């Protein structure tokens, strides 16, 4: 019987506090071949408010709410049942969603802050707020709606509220601020209760970005919280932040900074002897409609001594997160714990991959915790900092026991949706490293690295979206991030390099260096490429629609950069100059192996990169023709089409023929579809020659790394793609693994950050080519595996929005056996390397000796 599974509302499982007034419903199904009809039944307070009746259709993703208008706080229980291919109804499955506060007038609480006037160059301890209240009865329902400019952590009667860490997450706080809704029914009892909330600097006031800029969003951290208690008789009481709240800043956390760390006086309690001060914020909070940031995997360390005698904790995995420990101590004891990604040649902790600015060593981010102990057993868990580390060095007279220390990975709690395994264990480890770099860099926003910058770079995400969205369910998080991007897009359409802003700019104080690079080719193109890559996997037009104006504005801005000659640029001749993008700063290909091209800093950032920029403009315009068709914006098509054609032609005239060993110069025009016919053939042949000459070692930088292997496969040279991927020499993906990497390095030399996901974008080729899975439409896949290289088997399964699709193959002597799983209510077109094509429906399919057999 066809049974609905994995019911979700706007990509979230049983969310509470969403603020989408017409939420869309999603499910997948099991136990049949196809869904011919569905029925949705929704109830509010036990009363049926929406019944679709038996509705013909195969749709199971994004069925929009069509019941009565929904209001604040409403809890909806919705059930769905399905009819299968033989018109048999299956069982019901049920899920819920609850709305948050939809109207600004429903915020009865006031913004409050600590009772002091913060100064620009001072750091302050964590603020502690308290409110005592009486509840007339055990609540029937209680919700805490809460947000902060800063980071908050709340507890009721000593119990932590929720498990969202580093809340409320990161947005451009001056434009959009997210609140969370927590179910606190079980934490409140009849009689006296206490609500306590700590408030730290976080992204709002603490150090952020490459330069450790502070006060980026303001000097005054502040808090807004509204506790609503409904008693069994239906009476709702609201306890909101206001100046009646107690406040003090003499609690245990004397210092907290997301990048620098914490100083904690263990065992100390706040006095709450002052009062909160009322303040305001110009933005009405909205719901994030995103997954929470949570504590996830835990690691216990091995503990040794460094040559200099310090205790060295090795957690075995490079992560972003923090620690928890217990230690028996006396009041005068201290522990200084420093975190880093790697060790130096002598075996001492080496923080240099984190502590570098503009190529020069610095003392920050500190990534350290100073614990001042009390008598007895001291318990500590980091509250308001996240570090990038595999190792920790402990400077203390106290000896730590490995059983008493844990490292905790902290990241946005997206479901892992991919499982890949093959016979090459180095490849498996590289995929795992990529997943770890993803986990280490999705902390409410996607970032470049968890150490040096922790900056939400648009380019890195653009490069990684497809691989990342196979690996984990990015739908809710990236939809939220696209709003972050739109918040920062300028009126002229220019897309920032960073969203939200972290002021990565003060190389020379006062000169807004990075903002001058906004609009950079390949980075700003995230505005078009991220929504599109999401669409390719989730087939959700709504995400495209939400971004369409931003995508269009980006392309128009880039068109404005054609027919100009920027600073330090060489002019292009007419008529091609009309379509050559030759103005504005950019990063170019960025971080090619040093023996291929060593970047000339800062020259390469100051001068325009017409080859890269024209290629991306042609590509983006071509994509926009398709997007406009899909969304019915026919009026926009002629302009996109003109620039797609014009830029492509000008590119070919000005930049071909290409005779170079620099792979990115060949990969880019080929992969972005700028060449055809003889030009394409020549460039492809030249690329193969350059790869062979380089002995199959990687030669691309950031932008072209995700493009090269798919390009080789499209050109019929999957054999070369395998040789490049499986190459163990430097530079190469597997070389890093052989060097002991547990996450992906930023640069091929391993001299910069050890935790950048962008070069891991090669994984998409494993998923879409080695195992050959792609989403080809709503409820539809293509499966076209291409066995090769040294691999004797490979298997990949992907929990797509339409269900779990899987592909595996085993090479047995001269023959290869394939096995495919096509989820219920979907179809797949299977294409085998020998040219056989078969369209199949749901089931498990095996291929042997030229025949497809349905085995389950
Ligand atoms: C970051 C990159 C980013 C780049 C811009 C670096 O410092 O770590 O990942 O995209 O700057 O070129």
TrEMBL record:
Domain Bacterial alpha-L-rhamnosidase N-terminal: 139-266
Pfam families with a match to the protein in the record: Bac_rhamnosid (PF05592), Bac_rhamnosid6H (PF17389), Bac_rhamnosid_C (PF17390), Bac_rhamnosid_N (PF08531), Ig_Rha78A_N (PF25788)
InterPro entries with a match to the protein in the record: 6-hairpin_glycosidase_sf, 6hp_glycosidase-like_sf, Alpha_rhamnosid, Bac_rhamnosid6H, Bac_rhamnosid_C, Bac_rhamnosid_N, Galactose-bd-like_sf, Ig-like_fold
Database matches in Gene3D superfamilies: 1.50.10.10, Galactose-binding domain-like, Immunoglobulins, Maltose phosphorylase, domain 3
Alpha-L-rhamnosidase C-terminal domain ranges (all copies): 780-839
Keywords associated with the record: Hydrolase
Domain Alpha-L-rhamnosidase concanavalin-like span(s) in chain numbering: 305-410
Top-level class of the enzyme under EC nomenclature: hydrolase
MF terms in GO: hydrolase activity
Catalytic activity of the protein: Hydrolysis of terminal non-reducing alpha-L-rhamnose residues in alpha-L-rhamnosides
Residue ranges of domain Alpha-L-rhamnosidase six-hairpin glycosidase in the record: 416-770
Documented EC number(s): 3.2.1.40
Protein name: alpha-L-rhamnosidase
Species, as recorded: Nocardia rhamnosiphila
């Amino acid at each position: 019987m066809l049974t609905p599974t994995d019911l979700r509302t706007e990509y979230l499982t049983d969310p509470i506090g969403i603020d989408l007034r017409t939420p869309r419903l999603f499910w997948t199904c099991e136990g049949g071949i196809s869904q011919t009809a569905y029925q949705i039944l929704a109830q509010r307070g036990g009363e049926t408010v929406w019944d679709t009746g038996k509705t013909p259709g195969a749709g199971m993703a994004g069925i929009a709410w069509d019941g009565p208008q929904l209001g604040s706080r409403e809890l909806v229980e919705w059930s769905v049942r399905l009819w299968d291919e033989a018109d048999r109804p299956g069982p019901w499955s049920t899920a819920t969603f609850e709305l948050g506060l939809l109207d600004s007038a429903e915020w009865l609480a006031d913004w409050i802050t600590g009772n002091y006037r913060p100064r620009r160059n001072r750091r302050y301890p964590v603020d502690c707020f308290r409110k005592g209240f009486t509840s007339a009865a055990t609540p029937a329902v209680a919700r805490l709606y809460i947000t902060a400019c800063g980071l908050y952590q709340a507890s009721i009667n000593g119990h932590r509220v929720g498990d969202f860490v580093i809340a409320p997450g990161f947005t451009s706080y001056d434009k959009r601020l997210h609140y969370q809704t927590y179910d606190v029914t079980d934490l409140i009892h009849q009689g006296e209760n206490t609500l306590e909330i700590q408030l730290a600097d976080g992204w709002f006031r603490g150090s952020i970005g490459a330069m450790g800029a502070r006060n980026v969003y303001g000097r005054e951290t502040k808090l807004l919280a509204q506790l609503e208690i409904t008693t069994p008789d239906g009476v709702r009481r609201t306890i909101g932040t206001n100046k009646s709240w107690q406040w003090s800043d003499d609690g245990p956390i004397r210092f907290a900074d997301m990048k620098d760390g914490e100083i904690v006086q263990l065992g100390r309690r706040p006095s709450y002897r002052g009062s909160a001060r009322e303040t305001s914020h110009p933005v009405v909070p909205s719901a994030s409609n995103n997954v929470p940031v949570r504590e996830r995997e835990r690691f216990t360390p091995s503990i040794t001594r460094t040559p200099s005698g310090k205790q060295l904790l090795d957690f075995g995995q490079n992560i972003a997160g923090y620690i928890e420990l217990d230690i028996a101590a006396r009041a005068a004891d201290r522990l200084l714990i420093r975190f880093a990604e790697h060790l130096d040649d002598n075996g001492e902790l080496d923080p240099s991959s984190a502590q570098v600015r503009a190529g020069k060593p610095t003392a920050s981010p500190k990534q350290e915790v100073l614990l001042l102990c009390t008598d007895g057993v001291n318990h500590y868990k980091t509250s308001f900092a996240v570090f990038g580390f595999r190792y920790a060095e402990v400077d203390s007279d106290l000896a730590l026991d490995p059983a008493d220390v844990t490292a905790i990975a902290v990241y946005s709690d997206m479901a892992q949706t991919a499982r890949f395994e093959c016979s090459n264990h180095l490849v498996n480890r590289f995929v795992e490293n990529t997943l770890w770099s993803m986990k280490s860099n999705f902390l409410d926003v996607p970032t470049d690295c968890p150490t040096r910058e922790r900056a939400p770079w648009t380019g890195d995400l653009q490069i990684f979206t497809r691989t990342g969205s196979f690996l984990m369910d990015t739908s809710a998080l990236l939809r939220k991030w696209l709003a972050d991007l739109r918040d920062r897009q300028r009126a002229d359409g220019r897309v920032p390099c960073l969203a939200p802003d972290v002021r990565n700019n003060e190389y020379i104080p006062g000169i807004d260096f990075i903002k001058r690079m906004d609009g950079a080719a390949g980075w700003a193109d995230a505005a078009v490429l991220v929504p599109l890559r999401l669409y390719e996997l989730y087939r959700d037009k709504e995400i495209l629609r939400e971004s369409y104006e931003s995508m269009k504005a980006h392309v128009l801005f880039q068109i404005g950069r054609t027919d100009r000659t920027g600073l330090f640029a060489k002019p292009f001749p007419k008529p091609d100059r009309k379509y050559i993008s030759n103005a504005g700063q950019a990063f170019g290909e960025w971080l090619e192996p040093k023996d291929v091209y060593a970047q000339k800093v800062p020259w390469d950032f100051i001068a325009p990169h017409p080859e890269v920029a024209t290629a991306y403009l042609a590509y983006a315009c071509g994509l926009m023709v398709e997007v406009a068709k899909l969304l019915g914006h026919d009026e926009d098509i002629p302009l996109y089409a003109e620039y797609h054609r014009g830029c492509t032609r000008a590119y070919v005239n000005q930049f071909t023929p290409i005779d170079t060993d620099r792979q990115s110069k060949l990969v880019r025009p080929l992969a972005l579809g700028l060449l055809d016919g003889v030009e394409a053939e020549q460039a492809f042949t030249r690329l193969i020659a350059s790869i062979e000459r380089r002995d199959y070692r990687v030669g691309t930088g950031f932008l072209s790394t995700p493009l090269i292997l798919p390009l080789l496969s499209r050109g019929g040279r999957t054999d070369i793609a395998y040789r490049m991927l499986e190459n163990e020499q430097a530079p190469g993906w597997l070389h890093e693994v052989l060097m002991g990497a547990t996450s992906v390095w930023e640069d091929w030399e391993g001299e910069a950050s050890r935790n950048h996901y962008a070069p891991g974008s090669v994984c998409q080729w494993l998923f879409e080519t080695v195992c050959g899975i792609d989403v080809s439409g709503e409820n539809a896949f293509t499966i076209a595996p291409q066995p090769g290289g040294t691999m004797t088997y490979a298997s990949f399964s992907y929990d797509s929005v339409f269900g779990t699709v899987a592909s595996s193959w085993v090479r047995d002597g001269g023959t290869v056996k394939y096995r495919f799983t096509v989820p219920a209510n979907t179809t797949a077109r299977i294409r085998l390397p020998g040219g056989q094509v078969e369209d199949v429906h749901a089931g498990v399919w095996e291929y042997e000796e030229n025949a497809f057999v349905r085995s389950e």
